[in-house]
Amino acid sequence: MNPYTNRSDVSIKSIKRSTRALMGCLGLISFFAFACSTVAQCVDARGIPVTLVRNDRLNDVAMASLGPRGEPIVQYNPRVLSMMALQTQRFFYMHECGHHALGHVLRRIPMGIEQEADCFGIVTLVRNGEFSDSDIQIVQGDLARAGRGDWTHLPGPQRAINLRACLAAAGTTTSSGPTLERDNDSDEMKSCLADMPDKCLSTCMTAFGLSNSVCSNQMCATTPTNVRSWRRKCEREVRNTAESDRANDASARLGFAGVVDKLLESSKNSFMSVRGSLDRTLDRDRIYNTQIILPGAEKCSIWIDDSGLSRPHYTCEIKASNDRNEIENQYLDMLRSIRSALPSASWTSSERIGTSGSIQKSTRFSETASNGRTVSIDISKRTGTLARTTGTYYLAVTFRSPESH
Asked: Range of 159's domain?
């Protein structure tokens, strides 16, 4: 019987988009060893998000079960997982997700249901473009080296063979492997894609402290997941670069004072008149590219908080560096430029040193009118991965809409 008839097909469709979101969340980290503790992207048959729970005493790779309040969970043993290839870790995650999505957890688990979860896992990964033929071969190799099986699982070699049978029954085919470039890619796109593996390698080793071998052969290998992620990044970079070039040209014609005047005017309507294309969407924020860039800035963005908890604001990244003196000098230069561009009669300023959170120094210009507009210049101190990859100190300028907006 085709395990993907009726109910299973519906379940696959219901998590297809969320599986892709999970991939984006994972980034360079494997299916289980990642920072997103609640895997809301995997849901059970009732639509309840599945949570990952580490269990070092678990005598298995992973196990789908229910938590103390009846919530769906996947327990996993990181020691056992570390012995497997990244592809096999992903397969086992989708296998356990399948138990929840197909409603197995509340029922008895005969051997056929374990095979159904195997089919769910491999077909989902292939249909979503996460696995190529070579990825399946890696998983089959790991499964073939598994033990003799028990009353719920087929022996390892038979499970490996059955993965192909699952794909055949579902009418799903694999690709021979991913390709970075396409014939119709622009020169800018091809150049960006060509740099991606090296950028990935540098970030992997610098930010995560992993070895060159691990980064090259696992985290930054040319897998379908990485290729798709790199293409998305490059498409966004190429588009943003083109918009940035146009914005710089417009800013050069206006001059510093002209850009400040335009930003102050546009802040009255949530910067609508200077918004570019939508760059990305976060949990509650929409982030736009801009049609003008504050002279001296490396990048500017417009942030719109749909929840209404914060005012619309136009933020520019001026400089990031490990040299505090360099940042201080640029802070003073920007302070003088902003002060000379603002109407002195209707604006006041105040400086704070060592204020709350990561802010090291801040000057805020405020419009004297009630609930008026503000412009702030801030030096922040970064820590952890962000500091290692971009610099410890960070200078930014932010224009905010009136509070009454």
From this structure: 7-170
Total domains in the chain come to: 2
Backbone dihedral region for residue 131 (phi beyond 0: left; psi -120 to 50: alpha; all else: beta): beta
pTM for the model: 0.52
What sign does the dihedral 302-189-131-62 (CA atoms) show? negative
Q: HSE (CB half, 13 Å, CA atoms) of 162? A: 20
What rounded mean pLDDT belongs to the chain? 78
Inside any domain, residue 231: no
What pLDDT digit, counting tens, does each position of 358-389 carry? 788 999 999 887 678 999 999 998 776 555 65
Residue among 285, 352, 347, 330 at smallest CA distance from 312 = 285
Beta-carbon-side half-sphere exposure of residue 306 (alpha carbons within 13 Å): 7
β partners of residue 160: none
Q: Is 51 contained in some domain? A: yes
Burial 336-354 (b: 16+ CB within 10 A, else e): ebbeebbeeeebebeeeee
For the residues of 191-252, what is the DSSP string, one character each? HHHHHHHHHHHHHHHHHH---HHHIIIIITS--HHHHHHHHHHHHHHHHHHHHHHHHHHHHH
